[in-house]
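Lab meeting prep.
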Amino acid sequence: MLYRAMNTAASGMDAYIFNLDVIANNLANAGTTGFKRSRTDFEDLYYQYYRPPGSSDVNGNVLAEGIYAGSGVRVAAVQPDFTEGSLLQTGRQEDIAVEGKGFFQVQDSNGNFYYTRNGQFTRNANGTLVLASANRSLVLQPPITLQSDVTDLSISSDGVVSVLQSGNTAFQQVGNIQLTLFVNPEGLIHEGETLYSETPASGPAQTSTPGSLGYGLLRQSFLEASNTEPVKELVDLIKTQRNVEMNSQVVQASDQLLQLVSNLRRF
């Protein structure tokens, strides 16, 4: 019985220490553009029944309650929170935020597609809009290329990209930005760099024009901030710390009782 209590408490310590990793990542990315916080879901483990509910006593009467003991807790899932972060005005023409649902689609040099809420776009040497990244070039899809003589850039809420070129007085349309939705965005794989990739759990990518049914709108010269709420994360951090401490006290108490039982043989 005491060994089971120790194992049960140890499972609690292990689960909450894992939760600490999730909280730490949320706090570390509180300033990351387009970042989505995650939460840890828990579930209880197997129960050992000494008398299951509904069993009968010696007289044949059905007992309303049973006798059982649980064996602890484990992490069931880590669920991303895709609620929208606040929009911050930057004044930069290539910055784009999604107001509502949807992801930008980008492609790397190997032809792999990724999806992001980070709208920190810039121009590469060819004038093509790419996602700002520390390690690789990620081209916005469908590609938008701006000529070197562009003096002004306009991106409408429905994704129409228009430019004003030197010597012209009227804007000309050069492309359209589209958004992508998934039936289950929680099923996407986190790739780092605020990127996600498609999986069978997420369902196939569904791309359409911003402002279409179910799709968000674009806001030029804005960026979406991280949806991490530092105060809430700090509260969760304190609760997690207390849960680890309480489970460690159960381990200590079980150990002390085991020592007491062992010492009974001396008397």
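Slide two material, second protein:
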Amino acid sequence: MRSEEFDAGAVRAVSWDVDGTLYSTSRLTARFWLAVLSASLGGNASAAWRAAAAMRRFRKRMEQVRADGGRLETDDASIEERVALEQAWLSPEIAALGARPGVPAALRAFRARFESQVVLSDFEPAHKLASLGLLDCFDAIFCGERLGYLKPSPEPFRRVLRDLDLQPESLLHIGDRPETDGAGAAAAGCRVLVLGQDFHSFAGLESMLAPRVVGTKQ
């Protein structure tokens, strides 16, 4: 979708992806490996490399789940165990990294303009949002792994639509991966804008979704 073709007039609610959208995952990965190296040099090598190995296994398994259609069988206990690991190793780095430029301003603008603004993340995002200082920007959080489906499955989007009592065309999803955010939203009939494809800055995104003022002829 070209940005000049996007019409926000029918949008009532916005859902946001977290990882890779609100903050840079490539920069987080670099910071994480520096933290692992620092811990190793500081005498905590065993714990550091166990954490790194666990996160690598998790990412590999989740990508296979996506490739198989997104249906996920998990339990809250395993989620909480991984979240604890992320809080120890990733949350400090996410806090130091911060949100992408323009994200806080866009979140404030959209929350004021649209009826609802929610998170739609594949993985438990509350601790990440807290680290970014953005937890209070959203009306609700939808977590794919707790719902049993990862993008590109349309099921997480359908859950948002049911809970917010929306028609598909009234929900705009903002993400960073066309093969997950884009495909999942499209399969559910929702609108979607992908970072790096449909927009290239959050100031630009905010401008795209700003209310249009129609002048009157004198």
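Talking points for slide two:
The two ends are 35 Å apart (CA to CA).
The chain is about 50% helix and 10% strand.
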